[in-house]
Amino acid sequence: MSTVELTAATFDQTVTDNDFVLIDFWASWCGPCRQFAPVYEKVSEKHDDIVFASVDTEAEQQLAAAFDIRSIPTLAVIRDKTVIYAQPGALPEAALEDLIRQAREVDMDEVRREAEQAENQA
């Protein structure tokens, strides 16, 4: 699956309709972003069950702010409408594949239990 452009207008629907979404926050002037883009695209073709999205932080400043993006590229992983990973930095292909493998192994029931416990303690 090739990458899809994500906007503030399409964000909620994309996250609601898909269990597993990766988001690449980037900008056209960012050298590391341009280097990471072909890696991201290549890996996207190997995972038909994952939505690989990209957010142009210049065009979608509100969305970038909602994710508190301070450095680009930043990669975010959302599973079951929950952000389970968000870190800046371009990843080599092997590291991106490993991140996807780890994200697949996350027990989302446990994540929800921990979030509920934290909410109840607040």
UniProtKB/TrEMBL annotation:
Domain Thioredoxin: start-end pairs: 2-105
CDD domains xrefs: TRX_family (cd02947)
Family: Belongs to the thioredoxin family.
Pfam families associated with the record: Thioredoxin
Alphabetical keyword list: Disulfide bond, Electron transport, Redox-active center, Transport
Listed InterPro entries: Thioredoxin (IPR005746), Thioredoxin-like_sf (IPR036249), Thioredoxin_CS (IPR017937), Thioredoxin_domain (IPR013766)
TM region positions: none
Protein name per UniProt: Thioredoxin
Domain of life from the UniProt record: Bacteria
SUPFAM superfamilies with a match to the protein in the record: Thioredoxin-like
